[in-house]
Structure prediction request, 234 residues.
Amino acid sequence: MTHGELASFHEFASRETLAEALADAIAAQLAQSIRARGSATLAVSGGSTPARLFDVLATRPIAWDRITVTLVDERFVPPTSERSNARLAARLLRGAAAEARFLPLWSDVASVEAAASAADAKVGALRLPFDVVVLGMGTDGHTASFFPDTDTLDELLDPTQPRRVMPVRTSAGGEPRLTLTLSTIVAARFIALHIEGDAKRAVLDAALEDPESALPVRRVFDAAPAPVHVYWAP
Ligand code: 6PG
Prediction:
């Protein structure tokens, strides 16, 4: 597939205008799903990039009480930790969006494996596929918690993987992780990859130009049935 068939690029002069446009696109898809099915599901990434998007998306006047929000991935830490993606997601669950139901991936159990099993059951009980998935990307080409050094990467990236949530043990990613699987992500009705800065853009361009790229982010584009929406600002 060509670059163009893999990705639909949305480029913006500023991170602020990107956040407004992506929030509009997410809200439109969620509202359409609610009209069609009475409810909607949204999975968002953590890290640092989404903070501005969450502040803007939280203001969008949609039926947040019909929406379940969860995470694309999570560090195996409690929500009180500075490292918690659930803690970051709280920036979204304010204002109009405070009415949304939040489904955490972390739970207070002994191992990341046990937490992943519990989260897999909870995510599996949602009406799938997800309506919206918003991915981030690291400069190492990881997305979600598909870190290149993970010894279970092939299972995480298996397009036929039946599990929705899996544990990840990685040194590159810091603490153990919980992540949606590739098969769950690429089934979503609307997939956005939100990246900012020239360094990440260069990494993505290289991944998209090389069909043999080993970067995990490339596997999302290969497995997605429609072009992935890339939202980028310098
Ligand atoms: C995480 C994220 C991860 C993130 C990238 C980019 O838990 O770290 O979900 O996949 O999207 O690491 O992170 P930044 O936005 O901080 O660059």
Q: What stands out?
A: The chain is about 35% helix and 20% strand. The radius of gyration is 16 Å. The first strand starts at residue 7 and ends at 11.
